[in-house]
Amino acid sequence: MVLADQDGWDRYEAAKWLTMRRWLDANPGDELAEEVRAKLDSEPQRYAAYTREYLGWGVFALMRR
Q1: For residue 58, what is the enclosing H or E element?
Q2: Which DSSP letter does residue 17 get?
Q3: How far apart are CA 62 and CA 1, in angstroms?
Q4: Structural domains of the chain, count
Q5: What is the span of the domain harbouring residue 42?
Q6: Cβ pair 62, 28 in contact under 8 A
Q7: Does residue 65 fall inside a structural domain?
Q8: How far apart are CA 11 and CA 6, in angstroms?
């Protein structure tokens, strides 16, 4: 099993926010734009204040015996 450290998780979250920003730049009039913008406005603060300390991820590598 390989586990991500907090820096790895931060990079994962930051990449999601960057993708959201780029999508908003390319699709400002889309029907989902307001919802995406609201999430982008709230998620970084929520992540830093409440979830960063508790979340993480891991990967299991399985092999046939």
Answers
A1: strand 58-59
A2: H
A3: 9
A4: 1
A5: 2-59
A6: no
A7: no
A8: 9
